[in-house]
Amino acid sequence: MELFKLLCAVSATALYFAAAWLSLRHFIHMFQLNSYKPKVQLKWLGENARGFFAGHITGLVIAFICAVLSVVLPMSSVGQGLLTVPISAVLLFSAICLRPKPAKIPLKYTARIKRLISTLCIIYLLPAALLFALYGWGFTVVFAALYTLWVLAAPYSVLLANLINRPVEKGINRHYINDAKRILRECPNLTVIGITGSFGKTSVKYFLDELLSVKYNVLKTPGNFNTPLGVVKTIRGELRATHDIFLCEMGAKNVGDIKEICDIVHPKHGIITSVGPMHLESFGSIENVKKTKFELADALPESGFLWLNMDSEYVREASRGRRFIGYGTESREGYYIDGLSVTPSGSEFEVVSPSGERCSYKTKLIGKHNAVNICGAIAAANTLGIPLSDLKPAVRRLESVPHRLELKQNGGITVIDDAYNSNPSGARAALETLSMLDGYKILVTPGMIELGGESGELNREFGREAAEVCDYVAVVGGTNAEAILGGLAEKGYPEEKTYSAKDLSDAMRRVYSLTTGEKRKIILLENDLPDNY
Question: Which of 46, 53, 54, 75 could make an S-S bridge to 79, C-beta 3.0–4.6 Å?
Fold first, then answer.
């Protein structure tokens, strides 16, 4: 009989570990996607974890009813063992519901994540250790019921483990930052160019890397390594004494984020590609966005160059009283684009320099937005000593940055992949690009996020703008569906020309099945929400 009771306890323990790990794995993944920021994680839990808590509180009630029965009623070992069966069923249900699902951005098992998991292992071994240490007392069911409580606490256990690890993480980060500063000091001839903006900064970084490589040995931060630790990792892992220029992309979600990176790398020159309503949930206002982006300008030495996109209204406002070199299409200050033409096979335009020199360029990339970013890269490269004519082959070689107005041909269908983290200005630029092409124009989008209290109105405006351009609109998911469809309706857009899709796969099946006659389908994929939305 005691053996049966023990086997039941062991079974419940095994299911506890499975449910606990799967639950923790999910919330660790979300914590990573939320940039390891406890406040952001707590806000996310308030908006997204109701289903988890509802299901597990029900399981907790079942478990503790069993625990009370085991104490109140006289029971044999068999009875005690049988009472662990409902608890095991609750834990099994948790494990099944929390099994891993396909993720757009999988959990990365970084050193920090491994340290977090190690601390969580200690926290989650406690109830199992208690159960077996106190097994002789005969309260197996009581301690087994604690398993469901520990699983229910998983969202907050992740935050607790992060708090416990915080002194260690701060010490490790300080060591890495100081080491990166040492490496930079040992490269006295290195020129650091900071690149920031609400949108366009990654594209400008890639384009400028290609153009500057005509004359210089260039290192750039890879992908979206635009946080302080991402920059530090690039410096420690890739910077060599042979590099002439380091292109440092600088991202921000809070006031002071750009200054923090500047204090590490001390840029000599800077490019600000745009200022717009992005990450308003954390910034609070467009003024804070503007202030943060121009932390780069404030960090430059007197001898440094500052290149500004004068097509951006907020950049123009913040440029007053500063010494800078402008670029864009609307202003004739600095470098500007003239005669832009766009076809499905690419773009052609002239760039006029401050001296009045003109040079024609061809690129495989499409759209005004890409042309402006190329113009910014040309302005910087020319200012740093590369003749405009020498840049023509490099401009022809430019490739689309993945998921940023990336042109893809799929049989008789053209896809404009602009799926990376859309914002109002970027979405407007993407719609403008779509409007330049001939064909049956289809928009597939879940809308825009991280816009704070303005989210509803900005997505509604996105719907109104889409109505002017698109022949068909598929809205993905429910996050912004009401606002976008409402904006379309305000413009009298036909309801039969819209589709509400549960996910991207559903949306693509729908738009690929559309009959468009002889018109070529042109599909704009605008934004793709991350897994924590």
Answer: 75
